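Box 3.1 A note on notation
Throughout this textbook, protein chains are presented in two layers. The first layer is the amino acid sequence; the second is a token string describing backbone geometry. Keep the layers aligned when reading.
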Amino acid sequence: QVQLVESGGGLVQAGGSLRLSCAASGSIFRRNAMNWYRQAPGKQRELVAGITSGGSTNYADSVKGRFTISRDNAKNTVYLQMNSLKPEDTAVYYCAMARGIWSKADYWGQGTQVTVSS
């Protein structure tokens, strides 16, 4: 069983930055893709960014150039650096482990709230 624990969310003003972290338990982290999703109130959950086991990345158009996903396999941790934050980035952010960036997630974290004030 894999557990994913997110941290780093909070309240920030528009234009500010936050760095989310997601720590994974177990030994399969390095063999799987890691994805960040978000869900805003009244909206569907959307894929924000993903990184494969080999380090290839993919981003939603809405965050390209502002967000950066990275991973540290030695620490079993994936990060989401979020810069130039906008009020529309406000959401609960979830990390997920999957076979690929677009694959159905096998494991989910509990989520961390990000609120961007205007």
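DSSP finds no helices and eleven strands in the chain. The longest strand covers residues 91-98.
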